[in-house]
């Protein structure tokens, strides 16, 4: 009968899936003529992307989810650009001065490409008007017209005055002008003014007459003065109206020309409002020394009020915009109102600056979700803009670079764009669960996978991708052998013999370094040896922690035995992660068993050095032992188990089978082989289950054995389900092929026991007992003895 050790041993062919370079019809990738660059291995995501880009509904925004390094952002930008090219160029957006309420600047959309020339023409118009108005108002004909108007006014006033003087003279009075007033002076018969003496000599009746007539004349004089003031106001108004009429006549041609050139209702309205304002403020267009009566300019007046603030300029664009904002703060998304240097001076519409939402209007906006979530005000404002359909400039007090402006309330800009968020699946699930608005707005999930099937077609697509990458980065072409090795590397990164990793940045990083090593060897092409050199050097740069552990094992600081046998002691395998590098190494697990009822005590757990998954695995062991050996009575067992010399958190259940072997060895008092390391989870029925990072674990034990000396008996026991995940390095495969190292794959704990103990595990008989000459028979007998002692 074949032993479990022989039956479960894996052949070298099972240890990796190698890509045969002979499948390629090229010598180097330079010969590949197909340079199409589709999204490889992401059929589900591609279909979702196409649908999301085509649907125009305002609630069908997109969330691209998946692991980092899959090219989600690059793909989103490329596909959005392709979709944008099929769309019309959206309108330009401008802000203009509000002549009705300067605090509320007006926003306007005008045809694409119109904003820039219109703004330029307005600037030129202002200069032209300054010159034209000054020239018109200085013209001799207009000056003569105003002089004539003033003379007519003066003539009427003089006539009224002369008439008043005649009437006063007829009554014996003369009108005398003083600095402050006009006085009616009574006259003697000789025409001279009365002195006090002469006046006193007059009769009482004459004095009364003079007094009465003086009052009458004074009233007439006052009426004249009032009429004179009214007449002056009328003259000023007439002169002003004449000025305004003259200004209007002089600028109408300029305004009409622009209206004819820019056929747009909004611009026509602005030009009409501007015309009225220019006429109203025509004096501001004169040089300071020529302003009427030397008056200063109107406070706060600036010619900037007529200029155009271009918020979005789509001139020169083809298709809709695609905007990628890598730093989505509120300011970068929504823009801001710039303020004076002193931090508190009033501002105006010309200081409004647009953000990514304005630039993306009518097109596509791509953002990283995690970055966006780190700016809560920006995220809330974005959702509000998407929901309400307009961009309103607000005051995000949490943003220190924004002044809490109270001066402007710009009109909101209508907003219509497709928003693409790029993030992790965990963030997507969180938002789906907690954010109702997110659920309503982002209805298209574009889910990117990390692997694809390792088919012949996909391998060829991979080769084409590598060829394109070499072209784009100006790298040397790859030989077919080098491509095959990169395919194998991709398979290892995928963690499955029938898969390829689509984390292309991992492969392309290796490719760039392989090109470097080809250059070091002065090679015109990248060969297989250059890929190996790149991988070796990449690992070497990051392997300092691994080297330190190997050194500690080699000098005995960490106790690891790779030969001999020991009861209750076994080599488990763990994996350490150092950011960009992972490596496996063995760690000793020991178990002690006693009579009692305390159950299994995990020393690491009691020391708070284990996680929840490891605790779950420990409970599974207890359940297995109870069901297998004490299904009809309490388990009479007290046991302790620990990872020796482990001072870091232990989590996961991949060592649960290892711990079970140690417990069974202690109970059966049968030693375990120390030249074998074990990995694998176990369920309540004793089935060994798959674990992660199987390659790193095997290689970790192999290198320790190699340091201590290969004995041709050493090896690793893994779950059968992990065979398909094997992509071991060439050195390990060669060692297995030479018989220097071995790998066994087991389905059950019993198979593993037979390999580790070189004894039959045993089968339960009809009487419910195992044979006494088996491992499980020894365990059962030991537990019965413990039960008896416990009862005593």
TrEMBL record:
Its EC number is 3.4.21.53. One of its GO terms (biological process) is protein catabolic process. The active site is at residues 654, 697. Residues 564-759 form the Lon proteolytic domain. GO terms for molecular function: ATP binding; ATP-dependent peptidase activity; serine-type endopeptidase activity. It is an enzyme of class 3 (hydrolase). Keywords: Coiled coil, Hydrolase, Protease, Serine protease. The keyword Transit peptide does not apply. InterPro entries: AAA_32, Lon-like_helical, Lon_proteolytic, Lon_Prtase, LonB_AAA-LID, P-loop_NTPase, Ribosomal_Su5_D2-typ_SF, Ribsml_uS5_D2-typ_fold_subgr. It catalyses: Hydrolysis of proteins in presence of ATP. Residues 225-252 form a coiled coil. It comes from the Bacteria. Pfam families: AAA_32, Lon_C, LonB_AAA-LID, LonC_helical. PANTHER family: ATP DEPENDENT LON PROTEASE FAMILY MEMBER. Belongs to the peptidase S16 family. This is endopeptidase La. It comes from Marinococcus luteus.
């Amino acid at each position: 009968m074949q032993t479990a050790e022989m039956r479960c041993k894996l052949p070298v062919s099972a240890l990796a899936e190698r890509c045969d370079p002979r499948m390629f019809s090229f010598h180097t990738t330079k010969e590949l003529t197909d340079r199409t660059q589709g999204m490889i291995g992401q059929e589900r995501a591609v279909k979702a992307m196409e649908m999301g880009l085509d649907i125009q509904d305002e609630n069908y925004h997109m969330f691209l989810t998946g692991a980092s390094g899959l090219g989600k952002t690059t793909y989103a930008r490329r596909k959005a650009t392709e979709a944008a090219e099929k769309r019309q160029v959206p309108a330009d957006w401008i802000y203009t001065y509000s002549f009705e309420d300067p605090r509320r600047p007006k926003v306007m959309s005008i045809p694409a490409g119109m904003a820039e020339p219109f703004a330029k023409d307005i600037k030129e118009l202002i200069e032209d008007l300054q010159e034209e108005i000054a020239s018109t108002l200085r013209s001799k004909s207009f000056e003569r017209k105003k002089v004539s108007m003033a003379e007519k006014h003066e003539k009427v006033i003089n006539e009224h005055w002369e008439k008043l003087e005649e009437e006063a003279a007829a009554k014996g009075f003369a009108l005398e002008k003083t600095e402050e007033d006009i006085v009616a002076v009574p006259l003697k018969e000789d025409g001279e003014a009365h002195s006090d003496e002469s006046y006193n000599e007059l009769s009482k009746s004459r004095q009364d007459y003079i007094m009465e007539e003086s009052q009458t004349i004074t009233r007439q004089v006052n009426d004249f003065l009032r009429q004179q003031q009214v007449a002056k106001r009328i003259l000023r108004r007439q002169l002003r109206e004449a000025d305004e009429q003259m200004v209007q006549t002089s600028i109408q041609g300029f305004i009409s020309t622009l209206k004819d050139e820019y056929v747009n209702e909004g611009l026509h309205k602005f030009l009409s409002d501007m015309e009225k304002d220019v006429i109203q403020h025509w004096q501001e267009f004169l040089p300071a020394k020529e302003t009427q009566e030397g008056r200063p300019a109107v406070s706060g007046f600036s010619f900037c009020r007529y200029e155009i603030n271009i918020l979005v300029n789509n001139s020169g664009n083809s298709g809709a915009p695609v905007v990628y904002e890598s730093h989505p703060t509120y300011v970068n998304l929504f823009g801001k109102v710039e303020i004076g240097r002193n931090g508190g001076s009033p501002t105006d519409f010309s200081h409004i600056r647009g953000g990514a939402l304005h630039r993306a209007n009518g097109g596509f906006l791509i953002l990283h979700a995690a970055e966006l979530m780190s700016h809560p005000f920006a995220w809330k404002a974005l959702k509000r803009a998407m929901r309400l359909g307009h961009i309103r400039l607000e005051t995000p007090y949490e943003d220190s670079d924004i002044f809490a402006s109270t001066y402007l309330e710009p009109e909101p800009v209508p907003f219509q764009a497709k928003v693409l968020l790029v993030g992790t699946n965990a963030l997507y699930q969180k938002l789906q669960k907690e954010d109702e608005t997110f659920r309503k707005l982002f209805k298209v999930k574009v889910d990117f996978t990390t692997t694809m099937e390792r088919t012949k077609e996909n391998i060829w697509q991979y080769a084409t991708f590598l060829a394109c990458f070499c072209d784009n980065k100006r790298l040397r072409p790859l030989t077919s052998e080098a491509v095959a090795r990169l395919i194998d590397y991709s398979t290892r990164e995928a963690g499955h013999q029938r898969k390829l990793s689509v984390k292309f940045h991992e492969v392309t990083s290796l490719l760039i370094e392989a090109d470097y090593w080809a250059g070091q060897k002065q090679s015109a092409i990248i060969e297989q040896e250059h890929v190996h050199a790149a991988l070796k050097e990449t690992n070497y740069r990051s392997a300092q922690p691994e080297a330190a552990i190997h050194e500690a094992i080699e000098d005995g600081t960490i106790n690891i035995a790779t030969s001999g046998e020991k009861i209750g002691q076994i080599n488990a395998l763990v994996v350490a992660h150092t950011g960009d590098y992972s490596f496996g190494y063995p760690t000793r697990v020991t178990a002690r068993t006693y009579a009692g009822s305390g159950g299994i005590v995990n020393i690491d757990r009691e020391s708070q050095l284990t996680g929840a998954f490891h605790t779950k695995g420990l409970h599974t062991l207890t359940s297995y032992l109870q069901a297998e050996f004490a299904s009809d009575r309490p388990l009479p067992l007290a046991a302790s188990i620990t990872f020796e010399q482990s001072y870091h958190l232990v989590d996961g259940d991949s060592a649960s089978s290892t711990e079970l072997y140690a417990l069974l060895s202690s109970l059966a008092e049968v030693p375990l082989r120390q030249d074998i390391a074990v990995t694998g989870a176990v369920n309540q029925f004793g089935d060994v289950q798959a674990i992660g990072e199987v390659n790193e674990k095997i290689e970790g034990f192999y290198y320790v054995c190699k340091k201590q000396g290969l004995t041709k008996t050493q090896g690793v026991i893994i779950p059968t389900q992990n065979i398909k995940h094997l992509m071991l390095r060439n050195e390990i495969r060669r060692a297995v092929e030479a018989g220097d190292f071995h790998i066994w794959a087991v389905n059950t704990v019993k198979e593993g026991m037979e390999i580790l103990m070189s004894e039959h595990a045993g089968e339960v008989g009809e009487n419910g007992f195992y044979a006494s000459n088996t491992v499980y028979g020894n365990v059962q007998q030991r537990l019965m003895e413990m039960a008896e002692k416990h009862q005593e």
